[in-house]
# Entry
Amino acid sequence: MTICECGITSEYLKEVLEGIAKRNSNEPEFIQATKEVLCSLEPVILKHEEEYRRLALLERIVEPERIITFRVPWIDDNGNTQVNRGYRVQFNGTLGPYKGGLRLHPSVNQSIMKFLGFEQIFKNALTCLPIGGGKGGSDFDPKGKSDMEIMKFCQSFMNELQKHIGQDVDVPAGDIGVGAREIGYLFGQYRRIRNTFEAGVLTGKGLDYGGSLARKEATGYGLMYFMREMLAANKIELRGKTAIISGSGNVAIYACEKATSLGAKVVAMSDSSGCIYDENGINLDVIKEIKEERRARIKEYLNVVPSAKYFENNSSTPAIFNIKADIILPCATQNDINLETAKKIVANGAIAVGEGANMPCTNEAIEYFLENKILLAPGKAANAGGVATSALEMSQNSMRYFWTFEEVDSKLEMIMKNIFKLCKQAAKEYNYGTNYVAGANIAAFRKIAKAMKSQGII
Ligand code: NDP
Ligand code: 2IT
# Structure
């Protein structure tokens, strides 16, 4: 057992898990994320139980250094005042400035911000670049908003956020609902208030004012570099395999682009309404036009490719996961794949699952995949290419210079190969076999724990 409390023998770990459940009882996603990590760390904890208890290492790692919440008032196109809630969770700054995206989605709450911030600490450690873990966002819903409303919201959000960030302090970027457009408005407002061109304060910027080539592509490309490594280590070729990708946003689109260029055939993609199935392979130019340019629904794919099929979501299993494929790439949101969906995926004969999204599988689904020998690429490792390339954007900003697309992409590929190696080695060392979920958690934790010990009780 890896992510289930019932097998735990460490008294210290049991106490910590109980404490988390008690102190965060209204935060189910945060409890889920911490449980997944901590349970898989048991063999490491057993080796150092007395020391970790004395230093309250686990208690400190699950407690954010700081959570900032604030009011975000803005005026809509009808002249009405709207109020949203803004967040920034500065979770752990041991390895570098807090680093992590901003999510704009109506479902955003403290539990979701904290689970994302917690995941980010481990993910950022795996990149081996100097970045701590953080996350932020708001319950603002960008859907159906005009460009002017998006700008007003972003400006109001930054009026408050700017008090808490800086290129050596905390460096936000994009996540769900935040892309280059929003980062541009946020950056403009920061520059205006601070009267300084501090390029490294945000990443995912436009290419004409300090953004990095290949940042837009990085999460999706990185996911496929990781998948290729994981499959190769298990003597499986990506070329010739079929794939389905949930979502059709930034991560999904560039995962599709790289999967296709590496010889796989992506037959389905989705949005929150439903999925399209194209047995000839998705035409990504059509998806980009619908999603990146018009911000419309994926169903419109059928207007251009009438031979494709559309399936609406109408059960607890998103329609896309009923489609058979060798490789499953959840790239939309958390808890997309529950146990019931995992059972369908296994019954449909999938070989591997690659988490492009953060925590797209419930803990029960992860457990089921591992028991059924599905190769599972955990999000905190497999989708780390985005934040890694954000760190490369920060490097270029510090140098006041830039690298070519090929230079950034080759660094990304090297970083993803190294992350897979770390996961594989840690899994092997602790007899976890091909359980790269445990491998990722252990490799990241050891790095963070060592640095936290060096920096004393803070
Ligand atoms: P986008 O906003 O670009 O796209 C999100 C996609 O997921 C859309 O297609 C959206 O559909 C779909 N979706 C389906 N259900 C939901 C839901 N309940 N809530 C939100 N979205 C939903 O986001 P990204 O592609 O940037 O992010 C996708 C995932 O990848 C997230 O889990 C994010 O945390 C993770 N991630 C992102 C990174 C990045 O660099 N951007 C880096 C690492 C991880 P619809 O339009 O219908 O809402
Ligand atoms: O979840 C993530 O890693 C991101 N949304 C990207 C964060 C970043 O700072 O680039």
About this structure: The chain has 18 helices and twelve strands. The longest helix spans residues 405-429. The chain has a mean pLDDT of 98.
